[in-house]
Amino acid sequence: MKKLYLMRHGQTLFNKLEKIQGACDSPLTSDGIEQAKVAKKYFELNQIKLENFYSSTQERASDTLEIIIGNNDYRRKKGLKEWNFGTFEGESERINPQRPAGETSFGDSFVPYGGESSKDVQKRMNDTLTSIMEEQDNVLAVSHGGAMYLFIQKWLPYEEVSKIKFANCCILEFEYEEEKFTFKKAVNHNFDSKI
Q: Which positions carry the signal peptide feature in this UniProt record (predicted)?
C-alpha cells in the first residue's frame, strides 16, 4: 500500500496578519519555521520513511519542505498550489464571501473576481496527486490549507472533514491504491511543546 503525507506549509506573514493568501505569497514567520522543524521531528521520531518529495510552486510551501528534508532535492508542481482567490488576494480575511447555501466551501464565489472555483481546485489537486502516486511511493507533498480541504472532500464525507483542523504544518496521512485515496489520520502538533 502506497503512502501519501500531504502537509500544509508553516505560518506565513499573511497568515499572521489574517490576509487572504492564495495565488499571492508571503514569507514564513519565525513561528512558521519552528512549525516545520517540529513536523520534521515528527517524521523522525515516528521513523516514517519518506522517499519522494513534492511541493507547490509557491515559496511558502517549498521553504517549508526544504526545512523538513534539509535540501532542495524535490519536485515542484503547479497542481499543488493554493486556491486562486482573484481580486480578494491580499485583502483582509474579514471580507471573504459568505459560503453559498448547500456548499461545503466557497464554491464559485471567487470566479467573478478572477479566481478559481472549488471544483477546479479539487480536480487539479486530485489529478496532480493521483499522477504522483501512480509513479511514486512514500510521498511527502507540501501544499496549502484551502487546496487540501477541497482535496480531502473528494475522499471523505464532509461531516468527517469538518472535524479536521487544517493548522499550519498539519499532516494528512493517506493510503493509495488503484487510483483511490484512503484517509488514515490528521496530525496537528502542539507547537507550544516544541516536540
A: none
- The domain limits of the chain are 2-187
Query: Is 60 annotated among the ligand-binding residues?
Result: yes
The dihedral built from the CA positions of residue 153, 156, 158 and 162, taken in this order, carries a sign that is: negative
- Backbone phi, then psi, for 104, in 5-degree steps? -100, 5
Q: In angstroms, rounded to a whole number, what is the distance separating the alpha carbons of residues 85 and 93?
A: 11
Is 14 annotated in a binding site? The answer is yes
Annotated ligand binding at 45? The verdict is no
Q: Cα–Cα distance between 35 and 130 in angstroms, integer?
A: 27
> How is residue 142 written as a grid cell?
507540501
DSSP 29-81: -HHHHHHHHHHHHHHHHTT----EEEEESSHHHHHHHHHHHSS--SEEEGGGP
Tell whether residue 115 is among the known ligand binding residues: no
52-108 pLDDT per residue, tens: 999 999 999 999 999 999 999 999 999 999 999 999 999 999 999 988 888 899 999
Residue 150 marked ligand-binding:
no
Class of domain 2-187: alpha beta
168 labeled part of a ligand binding site: no
Q: What distance in Å separates the CA atoms of residue 177 and residue 186, rounded to the nearest whole number?
A: 19
Instruction: Confirm whether residue 189 is marked as ligand binding.
Output: no
Q: Is 94 part of any known ligand binding site?
A: no
